[in-house]
Amino acid sequence: MFKFDRTRIFILSFISCMLILAGCGNGSSPASQPASSGEASAGAVELKLVSFLALDHPFPKDMVPLWKEKVEKALNGAVKIRVVGGPESLPVGDQFDAVRNGVVDIGFNVSSYYGHLMPEAHSLNMSPFTPAEERENGYFDYMADRFEKNNLVYLGRWLSESPYYFWTNKKISSLSELQGTKFRSNSTYHEVMLALNMVPMEVNPGDVYTSLERKMVDGFGFPLLGPRLNGWTEVTKYLIDEPFFNQNATIIMNVKAFQSLSPENQQKFRDVTKEFEQEMVAYFKKENEAEKKALQEKGVELIKLSPDESRSFQDIVKKEKWAVIEKAVPDQIADLKKLLQ
Question: Could you say which residues form the signal peptide (predicted)?
Answer without folding.
Answer: 1-22
